[in-house]
Amino acid sequence: MTRTIRTLLLGCALALGASGARAAEGTTSGFPDYVFPPWQDGANNDATDRGLAFTVPEVDVMADFHGSLDDPKLVLFVGGNYFFAMAPLVKAFEGEHPEYKGRLFWETIPPGLLVKQMEAGGVITVGNMTFKVRPDAYFAGLKKVQGLIDDGHLAGPAVPYATNTLTIMVPKDNPAHVASLADLGRPDIKLAMPNPEFEGVARQIKIALGKAGGDALADAVYGAKVKDGSTTLTHIHHRQTPLFLMQGVSQAGVTWQSEAVFQEQVGHPIAHVAIPAADNATAVYAGAMVKGAPHEEAARTWLAFIRSPTALKIFEGYGFKPYGASP
Predict the structure, then answer these.
(1) Is residue 197 part of a domain?
(2) Are 276 and 187 in contact (CB under 8 A)?
(3) Count of CB atoms within 10 A of residue 51's CB?
């Protein structure tokens, strides 16, 4: 990360009352500390009283759990594809609705895992910590949200608000010389790819691979290369793919283009290779209230906010487009 951008992020964290900022430039692994999440230096934490700071990059980090569990007024389960946008979204929301200031809690693990947590009654274990939290609203792809409404997990209607397209994320300077999706089938390129079991983006990626190289390319990337170890399947692709690229574990991976934009904005040594529209896939993001939500009014308020001009402008800063906008 560039020194200027890291200083700005640190200033933001301090302004928000964050403590425990990174004190060193390196970790025991030999990689610079900026490689490891959390990457926003506290800006994605809504808690006003943070108490003792105990965050150790690479060792003790809960990067996809944000805010305080102490009597939140709004709990959001957000598919992690825009974890980086939540800090400015929450700030803008609280500016319009100050009664919620410092009282939001949100998770940004993959959509399929969020469903598993809901089915477990909101109970989740991360490392040695087990906690329970009941969500008020859930956000993922429109088809996923509609399916969860149909099976009774969510209360309709679905609220679509933004769209996103795919890109190929690569290390800065693209040392493997990846130029297209077709190159991902090369046996010499190590990939980090989202796991189809619980990461919805994998479905769109397979569609894009099929457009670019037919079933042979999709089967190579998600079949032969998985078997021989040259494709590593991620579990939280929105953090693992750039992490693997910066560590040198992988040389390319397909993600939503907004994720590459964020990595480049904060100065990580990450770049991306555009995918032509003819080969690309578009996701529609949507949300809905969870059936039996503890805070129904708060959920409705957020669902109205998420498609407002204020929220959509924030999304556009990361390359998203408003739902219904022209390609």
Answers:
(1) yes
(2) no
(3) 8
Specify the pLDDT at position 326. 60
Segment holding 140, helix H or strand E: strand 137-141
Whether residues 143 and 82 share a domain: the answer is: yes
Tell me the one-letter amino acid at 319. Answer: G
- Any residues with CB less than 8 A from the CB of 232 and at least 6 apart, and which? 190, 191, 192, 193, 244, 249, 250
* CB crowding 273-293: b at 16 or more within 10 Å, else e: bebeeebbbebbbbbbbbeeb
Distance CA 77, CA 117 (A): 10
Please tell me the distance from the alpha carbon of residue 127 to that of residue 111, in angstroms, as a whole number.
20
Split the chain (327 residues) into runs of 10 and give each run's mean pLDDT.
38 34 48 81 86 85 94 95 94 98 96 95 96 97 96 96 97 97 97 91 94 97 97 90 95 96 95 97 96 98 98 97 81
Kindly report the backbone phi and psi dihedral angles of residue 218, in degrees, each rounded to the nearest multiple of 5, phi listed first: -60, -40
- The CATH number given to whatever domain includes residue 52 is 3.40.190.10
Would the CA dihedral through 179, 185, 189, 194 be positive or negative?
A: positive
Residue 37's pLDDT is what?
Answer: 84
Strand partners, 271: 170
